[in-house]
């Protein structure tokens, strides 16, 4: 696909017919299809019956089990990946080489090496396809409003921040064989659960400079961690704490940013609306200014639909989407650095992890006690 062809409506293929496709992606696609912006033309799943059922339910003309066969036959404009992270690199590269844009569920892929390979496959001129990540929390109206306040310095310098994803997952959750394994889930709560809040924090505060992390396996019989913490210094000088847990009965997702003139707080669980944000002014700030800060405008909750609407518009207009390229890599790099810091006991700086570093190709970095058990060191990915 190139900028020479108008891609509206975007002919869209859904790969993976599981829960996330049904609960999040298909409802968003239906809405945009009704607006004439997309057309779902293919459903693919490794289980033929699942692909066929989804195609029947959604009146999708093509279904199959082979991604490359679908790409050759259908030639979609956009491929939506609702598959496990272990196959994201292979499927993304295939779609990009076939000329399709990619919208990929989180976690984006198991390593920075995989991410860079995907990005390289999409390199081209203006209007050419690229891969973007599902980071829908950036796209609610609340985040958009707060980001604009921070970017123009309305709240003063950001100074101190706290970001937490403290959820609860029981032993039955981890009885599913692919969960808690590096190769199939892509990581523990730092990667698989807290990634959305971490991404939103970075989107609001900008580039990070260094991280010092800690990880533990306290309850669950898993390869990955079940809790992690980190201290982060941003390029701006702001400092933050990060907590990711699946051990917390009182579940909450929260971001708090203390700026010179106000504290901004977001408290929710899996998604937010404008009412979930709170702005508390410092003493002496005029009431008129505070009223302006608190005018969030029309409420657009964070959702797959909110992001997909922006992505489709970006594709049609030939723009780079915010969660593609460097805009998506920054979050994965921070999470990788958190793991490296936690497993080595060192402070890790932005840009430090590259080819030749064991953490570039695997989040566990072959660290003793964390690398997958029973796999010879020379065979670990």
From TrEMBL:
<dbReference type="InterPro" id="IPR000683">
    <property type="entry name" value="Gfo/Idh/MocA-like_OxRdtase_N"/>
</dbReference>
<dbReference type="InterPro" id="IPR055170">
    <property type="entry name" value="GFO_IDH_MocA-like_dom"/>
</dbReference>
<dbReference type="InterPro" id="IPR036291">
    <property type="entry name" value="NAD(P)-bd_dom_sf"/>
</dbReference>
<dbReference type="Pfam" id="PF01408">
    <property type="entry name" value="GFO_IDH_MocA"/>
</dbReference>
<feature type="domain" description="Gfo/Idh/MocA-like oxidoreductase N-terminal">
    <location>
        <begin position="10"/>
        <end position="118"/>
    </location>
</feature>
<protein>
    <submittedName>
        <fullName>Gfo/Idh/MocA family oxidoreductase</fullName>
    </submittedName>
</protein>
<dbReference type="InterPro" id="IPR052515">
    <property type="entry name" value="Gfo/Idh/MocA_Oxidoreductase"/>
</dbReference>
<dbReference type="Pfam" id="PF22725">
    <property type="entry name" value="GFO_IDH_MocA_C3"/>
</dbReference>
<feature type="domain" description="GFO/IDH/MocA-like oxidoreductase">
    <location>
        <begin position="144"/>
        <end position="264"/>
    </location>
</feature>
């Amino acid at each position: 696909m190139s900028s020479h062809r108008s891609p509206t409506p975007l002919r869209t293929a859904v790969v993976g017919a599981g829960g996330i496709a049904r609960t999040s992606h298909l409802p968003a696609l239906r809405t945009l299809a009704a607006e004439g912006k997309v057309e779902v033309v293919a459903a693919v799943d490794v289980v033929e019956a699942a692909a066929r059922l989804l195609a029947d339910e959604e009146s999708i003309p093509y279904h199959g089990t082979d991604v490359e066969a679908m790409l050759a036959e259908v030639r979609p404009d956009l491929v939506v990946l609702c598959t496990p992270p272990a196959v994201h690199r292979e499927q993304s590269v295939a779609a990009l080489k076939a000329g399709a844009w990619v919208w990929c569920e989180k976690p984006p892929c198991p390593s920075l090496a995989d991410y860079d390979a995907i990005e390289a496959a999409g390199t081209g001129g203006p209007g050419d396809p690229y891969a973007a990540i599902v980071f829908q929390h950036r796209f609610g109206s609340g985040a958009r409003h707060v980001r604009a306040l921070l970017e123009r310095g309305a709240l003063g310098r950001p100074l101190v921040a706290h970001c937490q994803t403290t959820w609860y997952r029981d032993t039955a959750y981890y009885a599913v064989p692919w969960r808690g394994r590096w190769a199939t889930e892509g990581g523990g709560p730092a990667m698989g659960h807290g990634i959305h809040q971490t991404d939103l924090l970075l989107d609001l505060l900008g580039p990070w400079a260094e991280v010092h992390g800690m990880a533990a396996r306290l309850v669950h019989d898993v390869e990955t961690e079940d809790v992690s913490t980190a201290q982060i210094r941003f390029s701006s000088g702001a400092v933050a704490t990060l907590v990711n847990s699946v051990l917390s009965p009182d579940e909450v997702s929260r971001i708090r940013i203390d700026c010179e003139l106000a504290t901004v707080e977001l408290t929710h669980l899996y998604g937010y609306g404008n009412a979930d944000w709170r702005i508390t002014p410092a003493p002496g700030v005029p009431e008129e200014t505070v009223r302006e800060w608190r005018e969030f405008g029309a409420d657009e909750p964070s959702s797959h639909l909110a992001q997909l609407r922006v992505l489709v518009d970006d594709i049609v207009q030939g723009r780079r989407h915010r969660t593609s390229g460097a805009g998506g890599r920054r979050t994965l790099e921070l999470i990788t650095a958190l793991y490296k810091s936690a497993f080595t006991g060192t402070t890790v700086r932005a840009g430090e992890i590259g080819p030749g570093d064991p953490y570039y190709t695997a989040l566990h970095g072959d660290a003793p006690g964390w690398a997958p058990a029973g796999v010879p060191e020379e065979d670990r990915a």
